[in-house]
Design goal:
This protein starts with 11 loop residues before the first helix and ends with a helix. The protein has a domain of 61 residues. Helix 2 packs antiparallel against helix 3 and helix 3 runs antiparallel to helix 4. 60% of the residues lie in helices and 0% in strands. By secondary structure, it is mainly alpha-helical.
């Protein structure tokens, strides 16, 4: 069986990109903490919450990571959430 040198699997910069990516840490609160707080106590169904949180995430980071692409992703998730709400309204 092969022996793996675990020290070569991640570097400090890899860990930073996993634990504290800079495109989510440009404020006094981390994006993931804001996302957690925004759904606490809400009665939003799970997939709607997913779309809500993803649109929020892309809006949060657009200026720090992928620019226009992130804004389009934000819109995609928001449009999907709106469509679900409209579909449920008609049921």
């Amino acid at each position: 069986m092969a022996k793996w040198d675990m020290s070569k699997l991640s570097s400090k910069s890899d860990t930073t990109m996993v634990d504290k990516p800079p495109h989510y840490n440009q404020s006094t609160i981390e994006c993931i903490d804001a996302m957690d707080a925004m759904v606490k106590g809400s009665k939003v169904p799970s997939h709607q919450a997913y779309c809500w949180q993803n649109s929020f995430k892309y809006l949060w980071r657009w200026h720090y990571k992928n620019g226009l692409e992130d804004l389009k992703k934000c819109r995609w998730y928001l449009d999907r959430l709106i469509q679900q709400l409209e579909d449920n309204k008609n049921d």
